[in-house]
Amino acid sequence: MTLLDTPRRRAPEARPTQILDAAFHEFGERGLAGARLDDIAKRAQVAKGTIYLYFPNKEALFREMVHTTMVTALAVAEAEASKAGFLTGTAEAQLRRLGEGWWTFLRTERVQVLQRLVSLELGQFPDLMQFYADEVITRGRRLVSGIIARGVERGEFRNVDPQLAARMFSSIWMSHSTWCARREFFKTLGSDEQVLVEMLDFYLYALRP
Amino acid sequence: MTLLDTPRRRAPEARPTQILDAAFHEFGERGLAGARLDDIAKRAQVAKGTIYLYFPNKEALFREMVHTTMVTALAVAEAEASKAGFLTGTAEAQLRRLGEGWWTFLRTERVQVLQRLVSLELGQFPDLMQFYADEVITRGRRLVSGIIARGVERGEFRNVDPQLAARMFSSIWMSHSTWCARREFFKTLGSDEQVLVEMLDFYLYALRP
Amino acid sequence: MTLLDTPRRRAPEARPTQILDAAFHEFGERGLAGARLDDIAKRAQVAKGTIYLYFPNKEALFREMVHTTMVTALAVAEAEASKAGFLTGTAEAQLRRLGEGWWTFLRTERVQVLQRLVSLELGQFPDLMQFYADEVITRGRRLVSGIIARGVERGEFRNVDPQLAARMFSSIWMSHSTWCARREFFKTLGSDEQVLVEMLDFYLYALRP
Amino acid sequence: MTLLDTPRRRAPEARPTQILDAAFHEFGERGLAGARLDDIAKRAQVAKGTIYLYFPNKEALFREMVHTTMVTALAVAEAEASKAGFLTGTAEAQLRRLGEGWWTFLRTERVQVLQRLVSLELGQFPDLMQFYADEVITRGRRLVSGIIARGVERGEFRNVDPQLAARMFSSIWMSHSTWCARREFFKTLGSDEQVLVEMLDFYLYALRP
DNA sequence: CATGAATGAGAATTCATTCAT
DNA sequence: AATGAATGAATTCTCATTCAT
């Protein structure tokens, strides 16, 4: 019904959304096995049995939650990207704007949790993993590589493989976002804004002709 | 039959290691909550009760396993680093050698598993998280920043903050190692060797004066 | 089939009582460590897990059971005492009536079991022990000492310390009740009624002026 | 080999005695099911396996321990009784001496523990229970009833059934001994010596012609 | 004889799932 | 549709007993 409906999901009325939201938090905190339906129900302000009205079992709820989260994240990313209006100005300016957008996006709780779940739990769900790899990671990189290709064409950047450069870009951004999310353990990091500037400067230097 | 490997008393002092090893695999695969003591026992070729002779409970076993794994990884890393003999040759040569060492190290199962556990499970164990941040991540970076500082001094590299550059280095290496470990989902990646070369070239370019 | 006694939801508020009742029997028979939750559940006609809906663990169930049993016993004792209408007639008549009431009360399964549990298991639960000492033993004696004080005042009894006499009273009654409960081992005992008469006669003789 | 050997027991060399001693404490504290062989071994300063060299299993150890304790208690009681030289002096004097002896005896840890075990655990061991009833309780009473019979004959005491009077005697002494052993819960009790005097006076008054 | 590490059956506890209301 | 008490299979944990040394 809504924009984001994919065949595998029911129409997200209020109740399911509430539950998926709670599931997102609990699974994000403790993983698939560690989260308790009881806690999810409590957080969703719903009786335990109600969950089973919408999802056949815990695993399905987990899958659905991950999928929904990915889809939502994707929509946000696309919005962010187009909002960046990346077809105007120099490639460098575009890249700076996109880097900023990514930075906001990656530090989002949604993405952070996704990151964690992907790393440990998604081994058991290859289809979700593939979806993540294709739709989130790879697609995300396309935006970057597009800009870089244009920069290379225009002679703004040195002659790098745009795919490769985009991969380098995302490696730097992703790692830093997780570190910043756990800032309490990495005391040497500057503020999120400083980190962004550092990444941009370092990265753009590597693209200079 | 002879004197080895009778059901009881196989190698008395090896027991904890045996168990920790099995724990590493099971926890690494399914996380703290998802792993079953039963499976750990089976893998360690030990009775369920035996585990409790050495660890008071599941959580303690998990903690100990993570800690031990980190310590071992650390030792390996240090050995690798010194083996690289990084005080000879140009800074670039040293960095290349170290980058190669890191690459081997990071693609190790031990480190990959650690990575996953850190990301999802270590939220509940801040002390382990801190230990990881300090001893593994931060300490590892010191090796890199040392070389870079020397390169900067010698005029081989541009005038970057070595700390910062080391952070960039590890962000690239770490992300790529996880992607390569899940190569089946990232079809566009070249071989591990190619990826290493790509990273080295890209990174060194960003340091050229 | 009709509206009663379907497997689930039998009498929602009765559950704790049902369980405590079963616990009383099992713990009373085999003690805290010896009783099995499984058997308690079976006797309560409840699934094992149901117990944990009402009590956090075995020990808590035990404590609660002991406490409840004591409180119930107390209520019964008070009722018995007031029913004896001990403010009418001679002190001797009152004492005879009360002695009879106590005799009935003490030979009750509830009290017998309590006795046993107190003696062996309550060393580990000083608060319950104290409760028993204060509320059951000491309070019980007050009833007796009141009557005796009145008997002394009226010159019916010799000049004894009522507290002390009440203590003697309860020592005789309590011991005999346990012996009668194990009559098979004490073949020389007469019937419960004879024993009562013997106690009353002996005791009252000791109070004659 | 020793005096107390009954057919069912092995000769008590040092080791078994050590173990029985430890068993006495642990079983006395936590009962048959609650005590752990591990703790018994530790207390006996013996390896866990060693226990099985002398006793086929936990239950047998328990039985043996109870039996031994009873036999020992009995021997002590007899000694105490004959030491009281109860065939000289008035019956009252003898009774006072015996009452004193019993008082000492009953407040012994050995007897206190026995008391507790009898009440809860000995339901499962009818033979031990019978042994206790016959040899400890009933036999003990014989000493008292003998003196009373003599007192009655001599006109010192009123014409009571000596058996019955002995039963009253033991009921008073036994109850008070357990209360005094848990003195912390019965704050109104005087010192052990006072309690003894109170019991003697009360009891002898009941025997006055 | 003595040891104590190892065992595994058995008991306590948890929690996903069901179902009467 | 929604509830949440009840279930029982699955899991953790305990401890009497064994046995290689």
Structure description:
4 copies of one chain form a homotetramer. By secondary structure, chain A is an all-alpha fold. Chain A folds into 2 domains: 1-56, Arc Repressor Mutant, subunit A; 59-207, Tetracycline Repressor, domain 2 (Orthogonal Bundle), CATH 1.10.357. Chain A is built from 9 helices and no strands. The longest helix of chain A has 28 residues, at 126-153. At the A-B interface, helix 1, helix 6, helix 7, helix 8 and helix 9 of A face helix 1, helix 6, helix 7, helix 8 and helix 9 of B. Chain B binds a DNA duplex (21 and 21 nucleotides) through helix 3.
Question: What is the number of helical segments of chain A per DSSP (H or I, 4+ residues)?
Answer: 9
Shape of chain A: elongated
Overall radius of gyration of chain A: 19 Å
Total individual domains of chain A: 2
Topology:
The structure is a homotetramer of 209-residue chains.
Chain A: H1 14-34, H2 37-44, H3 48-54, H4 58-83, H5 91-106, H6 109-120, H7 126-153, H8 162-181, H9 192-207
Chain B binds a DNA duplex (21 and 21 nucleotides) through residues 6-9, 12, 15, 36-38, 46-53, 57-58.
Labels describing this entry:
homotetramer; 209 residues; Arc Repressor Mutant, subunit A; 2 domains; DNA-binding
